[in-house]
Prior knowledge:
Blueprint (H helix, E strand, L loop, with lengths): L1 H32 L1 H9 L4 H37 L9
Amino acid sequence: xxxxxxxxxxxxxxxxxxxxxxxxxxxxxxxxxxxxxxxxxxxxxxxxxxxxxxxxxxxxxxxxxxxxxxxxxxxxxxxxxxxxxxxxxxxxx
Length: 93
């Protein structure tokens, strides 16, 4: 049973790595599409620190919402999977 679980954990890790790379790519594409907006804000007198702070705040909010959603899905999935397990024998308790 342990080798199967190890393979499953490795597969989950690879999927998580792909998902993280996808999100990073989406954030880079979004930043690239906002070049004109950033240039305009700089031309109007916005400081680079303020722009970086705004982008970091936006990324943090997105990451927090994603983490909360992921934790909620994991919690509900774990509870529903536990409902399908057979009851434990008294000798193992």
